[in-house]
Amino acid sequence: MSVRFGEFSLDRERRQLSRAGEPVPLTRKAFDFLDLLVSERPRALSKEQIRDRVWPKTAVSDSTLNSLVSELRVALGDDARAPRYIRTIHGFGFAFEAEASESVPAAAPLGSGSGATPALLTARLLWEDRLIPLSPGENVLGRDEDVSVRIDAPSVSRRHARISVVAGRPPTIEDLGSKNGTWLDGQRLQTGPAPLKDGAAVRLGKIELIFLDSKEKGSTQTVGD
Questions:
Q1: Order of strands, sheet of 172-175, starting from the edge strand that comes earlier in the sequence
Q2: What is the pLDDT of residues 1-41, one digit of tens each?
Q3: Is 53 exposed, middle or buried (0-12, 13-18, 19+ CB in 10 A)?
Q4: Could you tell me which of 169, 174, 179 has the C-alpha nearest to residue 213?
Q5: Strand stretches in the chain, DSSP E
Q6: Angle between helices 47-54 and 28-40 (to 10 degrees)
Q7: CA–CA separation, 197 and 174 (whole Å)
Q8: Is the pLDDT of residue 224 over 50?
Q9: What is the pLDDT of residues 128-160, one digit of tens each?
Q10: CA distance linking residue 193 with residue 163, whole number of Å
């Protein structure tokens, strides 16, 4: 999924910020901070909330946060005195100022020439108060920078687990040999994928997530009936 604002595009899967199609270099924490602000827009986030999300379980100073804000403003060509993207709330924190639109990859057809209507992929993960969309196909969860869903927490392995979301098939989750294990509804996963249902409780090490799939809540009537 990518988010467009102004002349910029924020590609979450590739962890890449682009301006008019050209990559804009960002450090890992700057990308995480921008992604957080964009995801929570237009809600203002306190400095404490930002620290907890960008630097979980790590003590950082105001100067470190301010340096990150400065890095983002340089990358975005933003002016603190007349911000287009990052608004400072003095004595509180920051907010994303611009209008933004999200694009979701189209679901793949169920089969060539089958005439079937592609199912709408609506899978999400709820982590604390943040909804994380899952892409069609395989979604690797972990701490590595190149995974589909990055969870930067000490108890999560670099490539911890994999969630597969394929149109026309039940979603599944599989542990990838993680150190602290992957748990589904209180049971530790062993070998092979396990089916996921809407509302399932997933735990990666100490990180708790909820799997949401809104299509399960809709009508079961087949299109064209």
A1: 149-150, 137-142, 161-165, 172-175, 194-195
A2: 688 998 999 998 888 999 988 999 999 899 999 999 998 99
A3: buried
A4: 169
A5: 2-5, 8-11, 16-19, 22-24, 45-46, 86-89, 93-96, 101-103, 123-127, 130-133, 137-142, 149-150, 161-165, 172-175, 182-184, 187-188, 194-195, 200-204, 207-213
A6: 130
A7: 14
A8: no
A9: 878 888 888 889 999 887 788 888 889 999 999
A10: 9
DSSP code at position 41: T
pLDDT at 220: 36
How open is the CA angle 111-217-165, to the nearest 5 degrees? 40
Half-sphere exposure of 32 (CA within 13 A, CB side): 20
Per-residue pLDDT averaged across 51-73, rounded? Answer: 87
Query: What is the token pair recorded at 205?
Result: 């090490």
The DSSP element (H or E) to which 48 belongs, if any, is helix 47-54
| Cα distance between residue 200 and residue 126, in whole Å | 10
Does position 216 have pLDDT exceeding 60, yes or no? no
